[in-house]
Amino acid sequence: MLMVQVYLFTSKAANRDQMRQLQERLQALGCAASAVQLVDVSEQPYLAERFRVVVTPALVKTQPEPRQVLVGSDLLEQLEYWWPRWQAAENGQTADSTPSLASLEEELTRAKLTIQQLTAQVEFRDQVLELLAHDLRNPLTAVGIALETLELTPDRPDLAPQLLYQARNQVKTLDRLIASLLQVSRNQQNALRINPQAVPLPEVIQLVVQSFQAQLTSRDHRLHLDLPAPCPPVFADPDALRRVLTNLLDNACKYTPPGGQISISTLHSTNLKIQVTVADNGSGIAPADQERIFDPSTRLENRQNQAGYGLGLAVCRQIVQAHYGRIWVESESGRGSTFHFTLPVYRP
Ligand code: ADP
């Protein structure tokens, strides 16, 4: 009998029916239930890393050797195709040629995946840039109207201060939009290039906090840190992690009035995950917006820009998800916001 050992990688986004069908098919083919291990990537991110699984669902065959990774929406068909070949390889019929064929197939799959990821990044950027370009028009039109009115009403000097004030405000909005535009292009180049490694979380938090010292002092914010020791290292990309923390702390400063309280804490909730929390007692976020703020397109369509362009949190979510983590907010309007995100614990 063919001794097969497979891992089935799944996630919240993966199609549950497909996973069930795969499990049933494996059993029908004679694969022992104990030889099929179902892995939820958010629970066991180190396994995803070990087998270099970057999308789900994925099927990883570890036995018989060589290891092979199958991904894509047609996993069942791929299994039907490969099963007899694994069998043949096990029986020694094509033992010489199969490994190289398998590795070629694996290479091809990786290349396809890379293309998919790059296409998704380009699509995301195109969408964001289109919306940003669209929204640049509004303040520009408003500045134009204010200046034109000024020009056409020389006999109304009383209107001038108000018109100039409006124009100046719109110019500030334009400035913020352009800054966001630059940020998108920078983030899009780097956001998903995750290079995870063992990172000492409290040290990274301290470094980010230090970079905010001037901003915190100028707004008279009190900062409370609760970083219980010992804290195991997280498995993360240090630059990406800094970017998430910087964004959350920046928002906490922006949306908390002077004299307010901001806190950062870590919670080693399970031996697989660490939860980081950034809380403030600022303006808070209405329930209807609490999910939307992470979505670039929704915010861009609906929001007249006040304090930023609403892309920071979208990028934060992208980064956290690339670490198989989760980011969310708990908030009550007028009473502050608490952002949480999770990261995998590094396991050597
Ligand atoms: P930006 O701050 O540039 O608009 P973000 O994506 O960082 O973009 O945030 C999206 C929106 O979420 C903000 O515009 C703001 O309305 C809301 N928000 C984010 N953080 C907070 C916070 N700490 N308190 C209140 N509102 C917040």
Automatic annotation (TrEMBL):
The record's EC number reads 2.7.13.3
Transmembrane segments annotated in the record for this chain: none
Alphabetically ordered keywords of this record: Kinase, Phosphoprotein, Transferase, Two-component regulatory system
Keyword Kinase assigned to the entry: answer is: yes
Q: Which reaction does it catalyse?
A: ATP + protein L-histidine = ADP + protein N-phospho-L-histidine
**Gene behind this protein:** sasA
Q: Which CDD domains match?
A: HATPase (cd00075), HisKA (cd00082)
Matching SUPFAM superfamilies, A to Z?
Answer: ATPase domain of HSP90 chaperone/DNA topoisomerase II/histidine kinase, Homodimeric domain of signal transducing histidine kinase, Thioredoxin-like
Task: Please list the GO biological process terms of this entry.
Answer: rhythmic process
Record carries keyword Methyltransferase: no
Domain Histidine kinase residue range list: 131-347
Q: What class of enzyme is it?
A: transferase
Q: Name one GO molecular function term.
A: phosphorelay sensor kinase activity
Recorded protein name is histidine kinase
